Amino acid sequence: MYTEAISVMDNKIKVIESEKGIIYLVGPIKLPVKLDEGEALFDWYCWLLCKEKLDDAEQIIKKLSAINLAEMQQSSVLVYGDFEQADEAWIRMHSICHTGDIFGSKRCDCGYQLHESMRMIVDKGSGALFYLANHEGRGIGLFSKAMAYLLQEKGFDTVEANVELGFVDDARNYGDAIRVLKSLRSKPVALITNNPKKLDALQAEGLDVTGRIPLWGDRSEHNERYLDTKIKRSGHFAASACPNE
Q1: One of 107, 170, 176, 185 is an active-site residue; which one?
Q2: Which of 3, 96, 123, 219 has its CA 20 to 30 Å from the CA of residue 72?
Q3: Residue 26 domain flag
């Protein structure tokens, strides 16, 4: 048992030290992705944070096969082009949004941002989209986000609803994603975002961020207040802000 799996995984799992434990990064896996009427070929990686360090692929496989990983959060990254060596590369730190990314909800702009950033990275020729599974509802989780939505239907804005439930406006942490990024690329990156906190997080870890690419769009009657709250309450750059500030 495990013999063939071990031979395949032996050079496909990277071990990354983290403040909270050990990050196991598996990949790359070829992933053809539909974009509009065409498709693009990405390299897909997935990572898992564990408390203990396992020495080799055999130990990892034995350990994880005894755990119900389907009930745990695992993040991943889509890499496009020669991400490691390209002189220029664009990245997106995308927080999972169950309602927007999967169901296409119009209460937010997350689904639009997910697919538009993928198109932008492909057009650029090199980049990576980090899909952060423990960031639902800006870090409060899906169930709490559902309760926040009920408060929003009673007139609370996004920030007020989170605070009313006992959370901070934004509880997200980018530490592990940044460690994975550093393991995949050492050259400068430009960040696709409207959120200055994401820029600050990367720069605080010593990353060379050469610029910011704004990502506004898909405004509608359903998400106008949500988008305005991002700017007025959460400090996001306005749509007219300079992309390289």
Answers
A1: 170
A2: 3
A3: no
